[in-house]
Every structure is written in C-alpha cells, then in structure tokens.
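step=encode ok
step=design start
structure_in=
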C-alpha cells in the first residue's frame, strides 16, 4: 500500500511539473506572439512594437516683401541743402502709423532690431553706391534680419532716395506707389524700424530712407525642440530593447524547458517587458505633445 501511495505521489509531482512548465512556456509564447505581431498590451506581460504617429515638422513660411526702390518724384530738389527737406526716422514712423489708422489698421511698434537692420542697409547703399533691395554681394532684407537677430514670419522693406518734401513728402511718395503702399498697409506687420541719412550718391547730395517692417516669430507658439531630441533618443533605445527581447526569445526557443536556464530566460524576458512598455507609452505621449505644438505653430504661420 505504501509503495502504491509513493508511486501515485511521484506521478502527481511529474504531472504537476509538466503542467507548470507547459503553462510557463505557453505564457512566454503568448507574450512573444503579441510582441512580434505589434499588439499593444495594457498589462505587463506584453511588449508592443511601438506604432506611434510620425513626428511632425514645423513649417516656417517666411514671407519677404520688397517693392521696387523709389526715387524722389521731386528731382528738382536734388542737391539742395535746405533743412526743410530733412528726413526724420521717428516722424516717418508716426506718419506711417497715421496712414495705417486711416485705413483701419493698428499702429506698428518701433523695433530696435529692425531700426538697426534699416541703418545697415542705408549705410551699405551709400558705401557701395547702389540703390536696390539686393546688395552687390547678394544681401537682402531677410539676410539683414538674420544678421541683427530678428526672427520673423514676415518681413518687408521700402526704399526711397532723393530730396523729398520732408518726412511727410517721403511717406506721401510711398503711399502714391502701389507696391510701397501695400507694404505700409500690410495687415500682417506688427513692427517697424526706420533709418534715414543724407549722403553723396553718384556725386550728388541726397537723402536715403529705409523702412523695415516685420511680424516676429515670437507671436506664434513655441515648439520645444528638446522634446524632439528626447523622442529620437527614446526611439533608439526602444529599437535596442526590441532587439534584446528578440534575442532572448531566440534563446528561450533554443533552451530545454527542463533546464534552469530556461526559467531564468523567461524571468529575464518578462522583467524587460514592463520597462519596454513604459518607455513606449512615454514616447507615444511625447510624440503627441510635440505634434500638437507643431500643429499650433503651423496653424499660426498659415494665418499670419
């Protein structure tokens, strides 16, 4: 009787061990099947292949407006030294804003960087004896904006040369020119910088005036580039972890289910899955956050 009980107990143990091993193997297979099929599991037993939406890109639609340079319509005053024809930057800004208000537009704010870029333009034209939006070396208003650190969505330039009837005369001349008028009354602009200077051009004493208009990039929502850097780093880590999990699965398949190595490999595999899932979920959230910022930025650019 005791012999029979011992035999029955041994059979029970063997059968129990078989089912425990069999269940463990099936569990690993189920996990692996979900992993390779890319199924996203909400439990810690599945390692989904991350299927996040693509990382969006900001589209900075930069606009540059440069109507043809304006020569004075009052050429009879060329060479005059009369103070009545002197130009003044602040007066030109005030008169420009007066024209905008007459047309139902908000006044432009004076911007020091745009004033600096306008100054560079005037001095460069006198120094190199040209009167064009693009310098002999190929530098335009967009380049000047970059030079002074003005980040913009839209930028524009009005040029004038001659001896006008004062600041009111040069603004009136710009308003009489369709291209320059459109620049002054452009609803996209929010800022302005002006510089004026008297000098010698082609042997004659004349005034040059430059208006630089702008809509700063700061008016649109910020896209946090550090988030994209973090996303790319985590994607690399996820790829590496995916490779490790695949290698572990290959070892599990090759190991004897009766060996200690087999169970150790199962334990290691299952311990890595929640780490992968956590990183995959965090990466997905980061992508959604970044794409939302890019969407808002691009929407702002498009309507500007």
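sequence_out=
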């Amino acid at each position: 009787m005791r012999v029979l009980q011992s035999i029955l107990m041994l059979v029970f143990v063997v059968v129990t061990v078989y089912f425990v091993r069999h269940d463990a193997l099936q569990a690993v297979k189920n996990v692996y099947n979900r992993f390779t099929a890319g199924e996203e599991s909400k439990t810690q037993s599945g390692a989904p292949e991350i299927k996040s939406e693509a990382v969006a890109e900001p589209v900075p639609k930069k606009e540059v407006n440069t109507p043809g340079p304006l020569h004075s319509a009052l050429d009879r005053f060329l060479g005059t030294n009369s103070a009545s024809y002197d130009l003044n930057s602040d007066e030109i800004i005030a008169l420009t804003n007066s024209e905008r208000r007459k047309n139902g537009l908000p006044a432009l704010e004076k911007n020091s960087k745009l004033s600096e870029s306008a100054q560079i333009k005037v001095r460069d034209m006198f120094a190199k004896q040209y009167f064009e939006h693009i310098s002999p070396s190929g530098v335009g208003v967009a380049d000047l904006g970059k030079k002074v650190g003005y980040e913009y969505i839209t930028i524009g330039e009005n040029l004038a040369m001659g001896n006008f009837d004062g600041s009111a005369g040069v603004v009136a001349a710009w308003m009489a020119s369709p291209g320059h008028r459109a620049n002054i009354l452009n609803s996209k602009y929010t800022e302005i910088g002006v510089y004026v200077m008297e000098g010698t051009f082609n042997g004659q004493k004349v005034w040059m005036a430059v208006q630089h208009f702008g809509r700063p990039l700061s008016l649109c929502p910020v896209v946090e580039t550090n988030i994209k850097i973090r996303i790319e780093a985590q994607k690399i880590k996820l790829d590496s972890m995916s490779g490790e999990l695949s290698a572990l699965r290959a070892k599990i398949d090759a190991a004897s289910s009766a060996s200690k190595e087999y169970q150790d490999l199962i334990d290691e595999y299952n311990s890595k899955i929640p780490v992968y899932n956590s990183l995959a979920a965090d990466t997905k959230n980061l992508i959604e956050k970044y794409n939302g910022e890019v969407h808002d930025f691009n929407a702002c650019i498009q309507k500007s």
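step=design ok
step=annotate ok -> Residues 260-303 form the longest helix (44 residues).
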